[in-house]
Amino acid sequence: MELKLLVMKKLYFSLLFICISLLSFGQIVNIPDANFKNALVNSSCASEIPFGTPNDVDTNNNDEIEVSEASAIVYLEVNGKSIASLEGIAAFSNLGYLRCSSNLLTTLDITNLPLGGLESIGNLNTSIISGYMPTLVTLNCSYSSLTTLDASQFPNLEYLDCRNTPLTSINLSGMQSLTELYAQYTLLTSIDCSQTAVFRLYCNDSPNLTSINVRNNVQSENWCEECLINFDFSNLPNLSTVCVDNGEESVLYFIPQTTQVFGGANCDVLLSVTSKTVEEAMVLYPNPVADFITIKKNNETEIQSVSIYNPLGQLVKTLAASELEASSSIDVSALETGTYFMEISSNNGKTTKKFVKL
User: Is residue 354 within 8 Å of residue 339, measured between CB atoms?
Assistant: First the structure.
C-alpha cells in the first residue's frame, strides 16, 4: 500500500512538472507595441550568447513571442525600429545586454532585468529610466531628451555617458564603482562625484555648470601624450568652483581662468593653478588615431595654422585657421600608417606634437 502511494505521488509530481513546463513553454508574452513585436519576430535582433550571431526571437515561427523564447535571449538589439514602448521586456529574464537606441521611447523600465549593459542613445522622447539594477555596469543614454537621472539606482555602474542631453540634474550618490562620466553639452548646474571613483570626467560645453566636485580620494594621474585627458572643463563660462583631490590641480588643463579651485577635506583650501605653457595647453586625441584627430586647447589659445610632417620631415598636410572646424578636428584618414609630427602655431607660440596613425 505504501509503495503504491509512493508511486502515485511520484507520478503526480511528474505530471505536475510536465504541465507547468508546457504551460510556461506555450505562454505568450504580451507585447502591445506593434513595432517592438515586429522587430522581435521578423528581424535578426537577438542571440542566446553575448554578441553572438543574431536571429529573430520567434524560433518556432508562430508569429508570437513565448516566455520560453524570451527567457533564452541574452543579447537584444532593436535600434531604430520606431518603438514607443518596450512593454513585455520583463519576460526576457536572462537579458544581459540591451540596445534600444533611436526609437520613440517615453519611459524605459528595466526593473529586475539582469542587464550588464544598456544603450538607449538618441531616444528623442525618453524622459525616464527607471528600475533598480545592481547588475548594470555600462549605461549610454546620450542624445536623448532625458532631463533628470537618478544613477544611484545602478549602484555598480562603472561607465556612464549622458552627453548631448537636456539633463538638468544627476544623482551619483553611493556610486563607488563609477570611474568614467561623460556629460558634455548638458544643462547641468552642478556635478558631484565625491561618492564615486571617477577619475575621468568630461563635462565641457555645458553653459549652466557652476560647480564641480571630483574630490573622491581617487588620484587622477598627470597627463601624458599616450594617455587620455582626465578632466575636460573647457567652454564652461559660468564655472565658479571646482573641488579636487590635492595634486589634481596639475591635470586641470582646460579650466576657465576665473574658476576657483579648492582642495582639502572640506573643499575649503584654495589651491593655486599655474598657467600652462603652449606645450601643455594643447592635447591631441585620440592618439593613436584612425580617422579624425582633435586638438584640445584652452579658451585663451587660438590656433593659426597646422602642419603635419612624416618622420622624414616631409610636409604631408597643412591647414590654415579658416580650414579648421570649431572643434579643431582634423581628418587624417588618408595618411599612411605610421608616426607623424604636428606643428601647431597659435597666438601663444608654436609647439610640435607626435601622433600615431593606425
Answer: yes
Q: DSSP string of 11-29? A: HHHHHHHHHHHHHHHHPBP
Residue whose C-alpha is closest to residue 132's, from 151, 106, 160, 107: 151
Residue 277 burial by CB count (10 A; 0-12/13-18/19+): exposed, middle or buried? exposed
All 3 cell numbers of residue 276?
600652462
Strands 241-243 and 260-263 turn out to be parallel
Bridge pairing between strands 241-243 and 138-140: unpaired
The x, y and z cell numbers of residue 202, run together, are 568630461
> Which run of H or E residues covers position 316?
strand 315-320
CB atoms within 10 A of CB 116: 17
For residues 315 and 340, is the Cβ–Cβ distance under 8 A?
no
Cα gap 71→52, rounded to integer Å: 16
- Tens-binned pLDDT, residue by residue, of the chain (358 aa): 454 444 444 455 454 444 444 444 469 999 999 999 999 999 999 999 887 899 999 999 999 999 999 999 999 999 999 999 999 999 999 999 999 999 998 888 888 899 999 999 888 766 678 888 899 999 999 998 889 999 999 999 999 999 999 999 999 999 999 999 999 999 999 999 999 999 989 998 899 999 999 999 988 765 444 456 788 888 899 999 999 998 888 777 677 778 899 998 889 999 887 655 555 667 788 888 889 998 887 666 788 889 999 877 788 999 888 877 666 789 999 999 988 988 888 887 778 888 888 8
Q: Which helix (H) or strand (E) holds 306?
A: strand 303-309
